[in-house]
Amino acid sequence: MEPIEELRQQQLKKLEELRRQGIDPFPNDFRVNTTTAEIHRRFQDLPAEELEKVKDCFNLAGRIVSIRSFGKAAFFHLQDRKGKIQVYVKKEFVGEEALELFSCLDIGDLVGISGIIFRTKTGELTVRANEIKLLAKSLRPLPEKWHGLRDVETRYRQRYLDLIANPSVREIFYKRTKIIQLLRQFLDKRDFLEVETPMMHSIPGGAAARPFKTHHQALGIDLYLRIAPELYLKRLLIGGLERVYEINRNFRNEGLSTIHNPEFTLLEFYQAYATYHDLMNLTEEMLTSIAQEVLGEMKFSYQGQEIDLTPPWPRLTLLQAIENYGKAKAEDLLNKENAARFARKIGLELSGKESLAEIQVGIFDMIVEPRLIQPTFVTHYPREVSPLARVDEKNPELTERFELYIGGLEIANAFCELNDPLEQRERFNQQQERRREFEADEGLEIDEDFLCALEYAMPPAAGEGIGIDRLVMIFTDSASIREVIIFPQLRPK
User: Fold this and answer.
1) CB–CB of 89/99 below 8 Å?
2) Do the strands 200-201 and 193-194 form a parallel or antiparallel pair, or are they unpaired?
3) How far from 349 is each of 205, 259, 270, CA to CA, in Å?
4) Greatest CA separation found in the chain?
5) What is the pLDDT of residue 173?
6) Which of 7, 91, 262, 380 is the most buried (most CB within 10 A)?
7) Which of 144, 180, 198, 388 is nearest to 286 (CA)?
8) What SS3 state is found at 241?
9) Whole-structure pTM over 0.90, yes or no?
10) Which tens digit of pLDDT belongs to each residue from 72-113?
């Protein structure tokens, strides 16, 4: 028998013994009145003699994460959602029956304790238990060295163990929630309306990505999990909801990596009568305010490099960025043959079907994106790779679009929205032709209802999508997107 199974059998025997004694190992009749963090906040700085004057009885519940037993007395650490605290168990305070119960407990069990606060001779703030109650018996031992759980496979597949073992992981998800709350507050204060749009689309649209397909039995039709909410949010602009946003999941049937997960969380918002310049200013204000709230400052470290969010942030065109960071010359970028030669020189694989615009973006992604450590707006993407964006008035081959990069990661994508229904149809047709050239199976159908909606006149507007997962990566110094998604997608064992 393997050691883990042997330990499990021992804990099953303890479960049987508890039931034999008439003890319910899974009750639900204990109520808490405080947390470990609240006790530390209130009493951490009080000396022992002052603590003796505190006669309040505190009820806490949590998991046993360590035990030191001395026969008729024991110490253990109890961990709840806010932290942990030491608990002292002694026969004269809890009684013989409770002490006997304690002998059947293991690391990993959930217990409730009632007691008063004191400080040990070593100075540790401790709860002296007057009552102890088993709330849930653990039937599996925690992994060896669980308190320093580092095995990535175990951490992601069994996130519950990761959360038990690593307080820093719990902190990441508290920060994630805080960041999302702050995003909502920021937009709500500016009169944006939060909405929910469909997660299942009859036509995949709003981004260039391979969708997940499903089937609706009652309607007898295929549907696609959405790759972006864009076309539905624009319908709302047409309907008169001039400022809208949505925070929700998108799904893309593509690869896994440290910055890609098949399902991810996106904030997407639209503002009528605004330009992409307005959104750059708004984004600066939004993210700097979040940094101040979450981190307390504008400067912080991400993967060993200092990030400074102090505005204003640099604004470079795509070609300027390639020239600055890729050491390329303008003539290498404006001619397809020269651009392809330069792309192959830096190791970019080409099929030969790529357009000049696609080569330029490929060069940028390979040699510029990883170097954009400080917050940088990259503007004026080619028209061909921006089928929903308004063209630049000075150069119709480019668009009024930007992407925001921080820490070498694309954080946001935004543009002035194309609201000419005839030009939008032409762009969709061109996009279809490109997909056919690459033999794409999905996304060839044009969303006629969206084009119909555009014919009722959409106000001039700008829209933006911000990747929540990547933003949380930046603000929590996480190297992988799997660190900030509580249950990331993994390959089957």
Assistant:
1) yes
2) unpaired
3) 27, 21, 36
4) 87
5) 97
6) 380
7) 180
8) coil
9) yes
10) 899 999 999 999 999 999 999 999 888 888 888 999 999 999
What are the structural domains of the chain? 3-141 (2.40.50.140), 165-314+374-483 (3.30.930.10)
Rounded to 5°, angle at Cα 437 from 436 and 442: 35
| Residue 160 CA from chain centroid, whole number | 17
Residue 251 CB: number of other CB atoms within 10 A?
Answer: 20
Percent of the chain whose predicted confidence (pLDDT) is above 70: 97
Instruction: Give, in order, the Cα–Cα distances in Å from 164 to each of 62, 79, 129, 421.
Output: 11, 8, 23, 54
Q: For residue 202, which phi and psi values (nearest 5 degrees)? A: -75, -25
Instruction: Say how far apart CA 220 and CA 18 lie, in whole Å.
Output: 54
Q: Tens digit of pLDDT for each residue in 131-173?
A: 999 999 999 988 766 556 777 888 899 999 999 988 899 999 9
The pLDDT assigned to 147 comes to 59
One-letter identity of residue 248? N
Q: How many residues does the chain have?
A: 493
Q: Which residues pair with 164 in a beta bridge?
A: none
Place of tokens 């399902």: 263
Nearest CA among 254, 210, 171, 267 for reference residue 464: 267
Confidence of residue 309 (pLDDT cuts 50, 70, 90): very high
The 409-416 sheet, strands edge to edge: 193-194, 243-251, 263-272, 461-467, 409-416, 401-406, 376-379, 315-317
The CA-CA-CA angle for residues 466, 470, 474, to 5°, reads 115
- Nearest residue to 408 (alpha-carbon basis) of 349, 357, 353, 368: 368
* Burial category of 429 from C-beta neighbours within 10 Å (exposed 0-12, middle 13-18, buried 19 and up): exposed
